[in-house]
Amino acid sequence: MSHTLYQANASRVQRCELAVPGSNPDMFEKALNSGVDYVFLDLEDAVAPDDKLQARKNVIQAINDLDWP
User: Fold this and answer.
1) Closest CA to 42 of 15, 24, 29
2) What are the helix (H) ranges across 1-69?
3) How far apart are the C-alpha atoms of 22 and 20, rounded to whole Å?
4) What is the value of pTM for the model shown?
5) Are 58 and 38 within 8 A, CB to CB?
6) What are the respective helix, strand and coil percentages of the chain, to the nearest 5?
7) Which residues contact 58 (CB under 8 A, 6 or more apart)?
8) Are 23 and 55 in contact, with CB atoms under 8 Å apart?
9) CA–CA gap between residue 61 and residue 66 (Å, rounded)
């Protein structure tokens, strides 16, 4: 039986994350420039049921338009 050993990649430490409601696009750029390690655009718990369709559109636009690292 043969084995192949792979060297592990350097991992990126995630110290701080920020959840941003997808229904509030005004917060997207602020979150992007906040200096946190991880931003996630929430489409579930932070978004009212009636706002989910618009939140999806907001997130798609933000992913395409903003300069995410």
Assistant:
1) 24
2) 26-32, 52-65
3) 6
4) 0.76
5) no
6) 35, 15, 50
7) 22, 23, 24, 25, 28
8) yes
9) 8
